[in-house]
Design brief:
Among the domains are: 70 residues, no CATH class; 65 residues, no CATH class. It is built from five helices and eight strands, in the order H-E-E-H-E-E-E-E-E-E-H-H-H. The strands form four sheets. Strands 1-2 form a two-stranded antiparallel ribbon. A two-stranded parallel ribbon has the order 3-6. Helix 3 runs antiparallel to helix 4. The termini are far apart.
Amino acid sequence: MCDHHLPDRGDTRRSIFSPYFTIFINALLEHLTHTGKALGISHGIEETDQFNHVAFMDDITVVVQDNLGSQILLDAVQELEILSNIKLNMVKTVVMSIDGGSGEKDPPQVTYKQQPITGFQATESCRHLGYWATPNGDMTKTKKRVFAKTRGVLGLLTHHALETKITKELFQSMPVSVFRFSAAQVHSGRQPELSEQRDMTRSAV
């Protein structure tokens, strides 16, 4: 396969369903792995397997122990972009420092094609794989979104005369699904929050 002839039928090469997209994503992940092994770039946590990225479909998180490693792996991503012509989404690309909760470190200063990557402070929340959290794992925003989703659907159900079965199905397909998805990862430990969610759920069914 080369850049002189690529099929132009079926899914576009930039679609996550395209086999070409899968080929290039897998090539990128392998490139990150080999680069990391060659130069010793990984998350740096001792007494555990060393890796420098996790991925789901086209969502990739690069984890390294210092700014230099971040820049080297971003340069590696750029190499694959040139080969595949699949552009990095700069709007969704952010950099953050995970420091165990102290909140004292500023985000790393790294660039992509000489353009600075947006940095998130320790108190700012961003979306990653369906969750909203700060760099140090505060998922307060995720919980707020669950409550907001629940209240929104309750408002919808209040103003529409629907059959009981349809009402339950609608409620389960929206806020309850959001709660189920996040509940396993969000460490609430706060009974009032769980009670509030329970009461809103009961009022709908």
